[in-house]
Amino acid sequence: xxxxxxxxxxxxxxxxxxxxxxTLCGAISSNLHLQKLRLEMKLxxxxxxxxxxxxxxxxxxxxxxxxxxxxxDTAPNEEALGKEYARRVLREDPHYPDIITEAxxxxxxxLQHFDPGGEW
Length: 120
Description:
The chain is an all-alpha fold. Helices cover 77% and strands 0% of the residues.
């Protein structure tokens, strides 16, 4: 009887081991797939930036000032989005509320253009 119990225990361990191996293989495969998707996304973003194609997805992969300038250059009619990124540039400036850096100056100029004397 004890051998039956030990055989049963080994079978359970064998099944659990097999499930663990399959799970690990699935996780590795999934991780490789995600890495491939990230690489493809990075290449796609680079291509869209090079072609100067305006999309919100592209903006998420840029630093704030680069995104702001990108909006200003490629989508001048996107006033709301341009203002949002200009405000972000100002807030992220280490000297804010003083305007010292060129990036902050550009953002302030942009905001003044649309809202002279306004609060940003």
